[in-house]
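Human:
Focus on the backbone:
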Amino acid sequence: MSEVQIRIIEEFYGVSIILIRGIFLYYFIRLFIKKEVLNRVKRIVLSAVITIEALCLYSLPFPVKGLFTIISVLTIIAIFYFYDKKAMSHMLFVFFLWQNVYYVWHLINTAASNSITDMVIGSIDYSLEGAIEELWLRMFLLMMAQVIFMTVMVGLEFLLIKRICPEQYDMTWTEAVYLSIYSAVSYFISYMIVDVMVVPLQKEVFVLLDEKRSLRYTLPILAVLIFIGELSAIATWQRYRRLKEEDLLLQEQVQEQEFLRKKIEFTEKHHDQIRTLRHDMAGKLMILKSFIENNRYQDASDFLSEMDIELNASGVKYSTGNPVTDVVINEAATQAEKQGCTFECEFSYPEDKSISAMDMAIVLNNLLDNALEAVALLSEKERFIKLYGTSKDNFYLIKAENSYDGTVIRDKDSSIVSRKKEKTDNGQHGIGLKSVKNIAEKYLGGVKVETGNNTFIVTVMLQSKEK
């Protein structure tokens, strides 16, 4: 093997490292980014674009240290700025994690290859014929071993990360910055080591790992500790998001219990009204009998008309076809009436859509609670709430409209939150629309929020489940 051949192999080695990294970038994106955000084709295209950038920079005849990271970050920002701003922080975290995984290998490989190279090359007897060819051959084998080592080690790192990330969650900017700290540490340490690894002096060359042999052991340990730190941060974040979802589920269960309590109270109240009505009816029938016996038919007719008005007044104002949703809507209508708020409702429970009455009640309760909270901040003449339910093919659309003061408060993850003080809702403000979104996703639907002209509109789409 000649020197020319080994130079070609060195170029092949560099290209191989870049291509393998590009393949792993695809898998890291698939691990963390939901397919609804980036499908398979888009993941491949994004990975290919970043890989091509790396190959172009590698082919340049001058050092471009650090330029790849800058260009790749700008590429991601540009793409997601126009495509999906909400996913930008998540994708940047994935990119820096992918970089971190590579630099962990790079630190270990730098220390290991230095020791192995000294041992392999130092064992050649240069006085023998063909010693130089043997040197080139061993260098080739070392480079191939490093490519295999990288593939195996980065693969193992990926599998460890995959194991602690069973679920895909959205990510805020705060979470992305927190999780990228270890990636930044490994990035800067790697570049610092590369800067001082080989330093040309006036009469000799300073080789860091030859002068400080202890670094051959401390560098791999440092790399492992950085990776363990990254794993710990990701595991903590996953646990936090899992607990947050469990808390949301608990709140839904609490709401279900609240509905049952309201239903019992509503039923008891209705029964009390019936008992009172029966008692009054006995006396009124005696009066009616007296009118008829005395041939006072006009008085009897007028009296019956008054009785009809009273009977209508004691009934339920809105009947949806389901007792659970009846309770929610009539309770909201009562609260709206007390606030002097106009309340309109055109809603019927969709029996044919296989949608749970309890899930439907949770959606309605959250939408109406938020609406009642919003209109309370306005003057009585500006207050209105409208609720509609519409069937369309295999879908059921719920639309809630209400007036509001034009102010919308958002959480760190851009979700809309309640304006109640924490002391009044036990710190659970903002859980309403998240709960609605969770139920909508359960029925393969979604939630759309519109604001404008001081009108707040929430549209919830629910899809029938297979029976």
Observations:
- Residues 318-463 form a domain with the Heat Shock Protein 90 fold (CATH 3.30.565.10).
- The CA atoms of residues 420 and 429 lie 7 Å apart.
- The chain has two domains: 3-247, 318-463.
- The two ends are 70 Å apart (CA to CA).
